[in-house]
Amino acid sequence: TAHEDTHRNDDKTQGVQNRGCSAHICLVERSRNDEMDGSEIPGAKAVKEIEERLQQITTKAPEDALFYAIADLETDSYVGGIDLTSIDSTDRNAVLSVVVGREEDRNKGYAGEAIRLLLETAFGPLNLHKVELNVNEQNTAAIRCYERIGFKHEGRRRDHTSTNGIYHALMQMG
């Protein structure tokens, strides 16, 4: 999604915040190598799950990326992860990806809420102009979520991703 106000420069946009919270979830910024005892974050009981998720990302987080764990404030549990990668400060764009891991946590609004929080960082402190994402055309729930947030269809890559040996198109949205 593209940001219309391309040169926001108020007090809220100075410096990237380490976390964003809404009424229901918190995003906790971590690199794979960060030590966490959980005392400083909501979802403290979920620290072990967060550590496992972050270890799966990379051996060393690239400098042009932000990785967040999604913690549910009500249940005090790890829900998933959301990442902003390929952050390009010259062209002012980045790539977003989000995962809600457990089936029972899906379709509850976690992904949409996490995306909105991350977009506040992307268009605020990071001063990005555009955030894009890729999604399997079969993932209609995710596509609807992205459309509700304001992402638009920008392209379709035929037979680009495989699920159980069956190829599907990858939808590009921004």
Protein architecture, described:
The protein is α+β, with helices and mostly antiparallel strands and about 170 residues long. Helix content is about 20%, strand content about 35%. The protein has an 8-stranded mixed β-sheet with strand order 1-2-3-4-5-6-8-7, sandwiched between helices. The model is unreliable at about 5-20 and about 30-45 (pLDDT under 50).
Summed up, what is this model?
The chain is an alpha+beta fold.
**Percentage of β-strand residues:** 35-45%
Distance between the termini: 4 Å
Write out the strand line-up for the largest beta sheet, numbering strands in chain order: 1-2-3-4-5-6-8-7
Unreliable runs: 3-18, 32-47
The arrangement of helices and strands along the chain is EEHEEEHEHEE
In DSSP terms, counting alpha (H) and pi (I) runs of 4 or more, how many helices?
3
Oligomeric state of this protein: single chain
SSE-based structural type: alpha+beta
Principal-axis shape: globular
Based on CA atoms alone, the radius of gyration comes out at 16 Å
Average pLDDT figure: 76
Question: Biggest β-sheet, characterized?
Answer: 8 strands, mixed
Write out key terms for the chains shown.
174 residues, alpha+beta, eight-stranded mixed sheet, globular
